[in-house]
Amino acid sequence: VPCPVPAGCGAGVVEVERSVTAVLGQDVVLPCRYRAQEQEQVVQVTWLKRGPGGRSAKVAVLDRQHGEHVQEPYAGRVLRK
Q1: Closest Cα to residue 28, out of 78, 74, 69?
Q2: CA 17-44-38 angle, 5° bins
Q3: Are strands 56-63 and 13-16 parallel, antiparallel or unpaired?
Q4: Which is a Gene Ontology cellular component entry for this protein (predicted)?
Q5: pLDDT of residue 7
Q6: What is the pLDDT of residue 46?
Q7: Fewer CB in a 10 Å sphere around the end CB: N or C, the chain?
Q8: β-bridge pairing 44-50 and 13-16
């Protein structure tokens, strides 16, 4: 799952692990941190999962105004810290 990138700005820095190892059926943490520039406010974050052929599927959307929405295949499986 790629780390979110703020739409239309890209002014801050996205920090991710180069590689994460997971075991099928076990929980995994996908660390991602966004360092905003001074005066910048992040209002929405979207997590996407890359599939075969580079196609992306939406996993979750975190929005300051509208809250958190996790897509059906991932409902109950996503926890944001």
Answers
A1: 78
A2: 75
A3: unpaired
A4: membrane
A5: 53
A6: 86
A7: C
A8: unpaired
Nearest to 4 by CA among 76, 61, 57: 61
Amino acid identity for residue 17 in this structure: E
Q: Quote the tokens at residue 50.
A: 């890359």
Number of Cβ within 10 Å of residue 42's Cβ equals 13
At position 31, the amino acid (one-letter code) is P
**pTM of the prediction?**
0.64
Q: Where are the beta strands (DSSP E) in the chain?
A: 13-16, 32-35, 44-50, 56-63, 67-70
**Which tokens is 11 given?**
């002014």
Query: Along the chain (81 residues), what's the average pLDDT of each consecutive run of 10 residues?
Result: 53 82 86 84 85 86 90 85 72
